[in-house]
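Q: RNA helicase, please. Structure only.
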Amino acid sequence: MTAEERRNLRAFQDYVIKILDPTYILSYMSPWFKDDEVQYIWAEKNNKGTMEAASLFLKFLLELQEEGWFRGFLDALAHAGYSGLYEAIESWDFQTIERLEEYRSLLKRLQPEFKTTVNPKDILPEVSKCLISQECEEIMQALKKWIEENSELSFLKPGILTGRGKTNQNTGMTLPAQKCALDAFRTNGDKKILIATSVADEGIDIAECNLVILYEYVGNVIKMIQTRGRGRARGSKCFLLTSNAVVIEKEKINIYKEKMMNDSISMLQTWNEAVFKEKVLQIQIQEKVIRDSQGKVEPVPDKENKKLLCRKCKAFACYTVDIRVVEECHYTVVGDAFRKCFVSKLHPKPKSFGYFEKRAKIFCARPNCSHDWGIHVKYKIFEIPVIKIESFVVEDIATGAQKLYAKWKDFHFEKIPFDAKEMPK
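A: Structure for RNA helicase:
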């Protein structure tokens, strides 16, 4: 971490303290913190509260001198699902976080007004299940906290549901965590509200509910119909809550597009079936002619020399010219130099698949890093490492530009097949 980055983290620490619950990321920070420091942070949360624990966490964090800790902190935020905070710190742009303060202030202003004008117990028990769709995780947590801390609303016991996939290095809920949240919403009569991201729009089986609330969230017309369809109970309703004129206008356009779609379907249903089939056939023929004339554009392999750095500590690992492809889908590195860059530990679940015998896991050899790089296998008669691209940063030697890849197929470099002749005798 540079001195400027350290100064920036100190300057913006008030934002971090307000948002971060450090106990969620301590397991990911174990390479950097001592056991007694972790215990102090837990004790601070239990005795004084989350913000005090976050303040102590940052104090320990900023005292670290080992190289690579800042990257480890960002990775921990990503793994724990702090997507907004991750992006704000990585770019040192806290405007999004500042805008969240407006929402939090709005919730605080609305709470006393809501208490004096509406008795939640009169209306909310009628809402057997409610699905609140919201894209920003910080706002989701603010909504959940507001409901839990409101004595008139706490009986609703809100749950949270986010997606599983990685986006911009942000990691969502695990499958077991998703299943637990959905089961609680489906079977637990006390769990009356589920606050969800767009993962709830489609693809996940959510129990029927009679109220869907879109809070400052609007997608395209397809998402609008899918989200509204989540209210499968008889007489269900869907509301969009927003003060943003742009969001309102977009929803009006979606409603207009839905009307156009329904009108078009009604018109098509009046067509003669034979005429309709002929029209579709002509369109398909035209589209095929266009596709065939264009041909498939193959990505051009980058033959320039690049190097792989450990994603966590940025230590040098190897050059791309030393990477070889085994059995068309596994990647190894030839040469003795790479073997000095990693250490190995016996694999907890050794097994064989095809010509491969999985024997050990390999990690970055740099002290205080130990980032997971892949596995060590016996391939036929050869002992070779098999690396995973998501464990590394690809750096252009000439420009210094760095890029991350989630899959090998996305990295278009010159892929050289494994050749036994290159292996030492």
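A: Brief note, in case it's useful. The CA atoms of residues 314 and 340 lie 16 Å apart.
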